[in-house]
Amino acid sequence: MELLKKKILDEAGVEEGHILKVDSFLNHQLDIAFLNEVGKEFKRLFNDNNITKILTLETSGIAIASIAAQYFNVPVVFAKKIETKNLDKETYDSDVYSYTKGRTYKIRVSKKYILPEDRILIIDDFLANAQAALGLMDIINKAGAKLEGIGIVIEKGFQDGGELLRKKGVNLQSLVIIDSLEENNIKFR
Ligand code: 5GP
């Protein structure tokens, strides 16, 4: 997606540990006009999949998933990372290792919101080692629902998540793939 490449080149920063910082449009401030274009692109890519629900992870996936959901006309469900007293007792759980935080955490979705008849599109901001995606896929599996595809805004092609998911036969669509962040130089595939 050319607009996304331009946005990354104009606005992103590279942090230690091969972390791309996109706070000005995706992870802190949200550029809604731009996110609408991202939403339309996901709709074009998954138009034929009869998606019934979009699944993401709190916090950073929620904005992108919500904007995309308007084009699919389906609800968004976000897996919760934080245990709260008011979350339903009956949940599907999975463990996710966070590359950016360096620790494992539990994600949960109420059993009410993923049903066996659901055809699910996972949407997230980044794909690195696919830990978040695998956790969400585990929850879809436990619910007996069908994974239709995974839409990622920025795939870090130098980490192994993309290859792992494609080898599993997942319909993975990344709007851009970054092959290198060496010396603060952003190289696209
Ligand atoms: P994975 O689970 O695929 O290993 O990592 C994806 C998750 O880690 C994303 O949901 C995102 O929150 C975070 N992440 C991984 N790499 C980056 C990065 O370079 N920049 C930012 N902002 N987040 C990242």
TrEMBL record:
It holds the Pfam family Pribosyltran. The keyword Membrane does not apply. CDD domains: PRTases_typeI. It is found in: Cytoplasm. 5-phospho-alpha-D-ribose 1-diphosphate binds at A128, N129, A130, Q131, A132. This is Xanthine phosphoribosyltransferase. The keyword Glycosyltransferase applies. The gene is xpt. Xanthine binds at L20, N27, K156. It catalyses: XMP + diphosphate = xanthine + 5-phospho-alpha-D-ribose 1-diphosphate. GO terms for molecular function: xanthine phosphoribosyltransferase activity. HAMAP family: XPRTase. One of its GO terms (biological process) is xanthine metabolic process. One of its GO terms (cellular component) is cytoplasm. Residues 33-156 form the Phosphoribosyltransferase domain. Homodimer. Belongs to the purine/pyrimidine phosphoribosyltransferase family. Xpt subfamily. InterPro entries: PRTase-like, PRTase_dom, Pur/Pyrimidine_PRTase, Xanthine_PRibTrfase. Converts the preformed base xanthine, a product of nucleic acid breakdown, to xanthosine 5'-monophosphate (XMP), so it can be reused for RNA or DNA synthesis. Keywords: Cytoplasm, Glycosyltransferase, Purine salvage, Transferase. Its EC number is 2.4.2.22. Pathway: Purine metabolism; XMP biosynthesis via salvage pathway; XMP from xanthine: step 1/1. Its main location: cytoplasm. It comes from Proteiniborus ethanoligenes.
